[in-house]
Design brief:
The chain has 349 residues and is an alpha/beta fold. 35% of the residues lie in helices and 15% in strands. It contains 11 helices and 11 strands. The strands form 2 sheets. The protein has a 7-stranded mixed sheet, sandwiched between helices. The chain is globular, with a radius of gyration of 22 Å. It binds pyridoxal-5'-phosphate. Pyridoxal-5'-phosphate binds next to helix 3.
Length: 349
């Protein structure tokens, strides 16, 4: 068999990865040897269901996603599909963060999963409080002082809904030696620029995306990692082969080939979010509603217990985020009917 040149991995990869070879199916793919009959897969050729494994490197779908991203400097080698952004985060931590010494820096508040997984993997966690009345100011000096192995920023942020500007993120990429992971799960709902536009300039920048939110495909389980090709190569050693299943590939391809209706829905959601925000600002049980670049709004309640219970009694469940921000809930932007029911219940408080 033709030898496979090992894929160049990123200098920040965990030590153990440097000892590994590629797993079988990837070795076959990257060796590029020609063959007509593949007797290596141990599958059942008589099955009427889905007997074959999925395409391991779906270049056509990667290109479709890149067409959407719109940075012409990025190539399919800069893209990895994952089982949702949750899996993407797990791969990044397992690929690059060396327990127990590596420090993962996150903001406070932010998406709970970063601390959850970093704790599970016995990593050190440093939290940098977000400043400003809308939690939208980043303490760059503090991040530089910590100089973490990895800084993870949710942008726009869950649960606050607010967003840090591109120039601030560029400064961090330029001044810390570690990786800068930007979780853009909600970028489709933002009016601000994505870091995808500067990705080609920084080999320490990683973007985590999902098709669960704006693309409306939470049930398909598909996430995307964008980064330097050595970042993607590194993650190929970590990822379970064939995790991008045939049904998911089909749904994702179909969706990316016809993005116009979904793009229209993002505009609708943004408009309805802004209307809902204005209404929430004038409700008496609401202490503060936060301006949002996402499809949810964080709200601080004057009397958390009373209002949360009132909503539940009206059959309305909102996400509690009081462990991150005192007296706060996170409300998804939904349909007019749902907003009407929510506002009516809140007005009774
Ligand atoms: C900020 C953020 N990142 C990642 C995820 C995970 O998304 P997925 O459904 O792609 O696993 C979520 C889900 O709520 C999220 O809010």
């Amino acid at each position: 068999m033709a030898t496979v040149t090992p894929l160049a991995i990123h200098p920040h990869a965990r030590h153990s990865l440097k000892k590994l070879g590629l797993q079988g199916p990837l070795k076959k793919h990257f060796s590029r040897v020609p063959f007509n009959i593949d007797l290596s897969k141990n599958i059942n050729p008589h099955s009427p269901y889905l007997p074959d494994y999925p395409i391991i490197d779906p270049i056509e779908i990667k290109q479709l996603y890149l067409d959407y991203v719109g940075n012409s400097q990025l190539k399919p080698d800069n893209v990895l599909f994952t089982v949702g952004a949750a899996d993407g985060l797990d791969l990044i931590l397992r690929g690059f963060a060396q327990p127990p010494s590596d420090v993962i820096c996150i903001t406070d508040p932010t998406y709970f999963a970063y601390e959850h997984w970093a704790t599970l993997y016995d990593l050190q966690i440093e939290k940098v409080p977000l400043k400003g009345e809308n939690y939208d100011v980043l303490d760059i000096e503090e991040i530089q002082r910590i100089n973490p192995k990895m800084f993870i920023l949710c942008n726009p942020n869950n649960p606050t809904g607010t967003q840090i500007h591109l120039e601030t993120i560029e400064k961090i990429c330029q001044t810390i030696s570690g990786l800068v992971v930007i979780d853009e799960a909600y970028i489709e709902f933002s009016n601000q620029e994505s870091v995808a536009n500067i990705l080609h300039k920084y080999e320490n920048l990683i973007i985590l995306r999902t098709l669960s939110k704006g693309w409306g495909m939470a049930g398909a389980r598909c996430g995307v990692i964008l980064g330097d090709d050595r970042i993607i190569n590194t993650l190929l050693y970590v990822q379970t082969p064939f995790s991008f299943s045939i049904p998911t590939q089909e749904w994702v391809q179909k969706c990316l080939e016809n993005p116009a209706p979904l793009k229209e829905s993002w505009n609708l959601i943004k408009k309805e979010r802004d209307q809902l925000y204005n209404k929430l600002c004038s409700i008496s049980c609401v202490e503060k509603a936060f301006p949002s670049q996402t499809n949810f709004i964080m709200v601080i309640l004057k009397d958390y217990e009373k209002t949360f219970t009132r909503l539940l009694n009206n059959g309305i469940y909102v996400a509690s985020c009081r462990s991150a921000v005192p007296k706060a809930v996170r409300i998804s932007v939904s349909t007019n009917d749902h907003h009407h029911a929510l506002l009516e219940a809140l007005n009774q408080c």
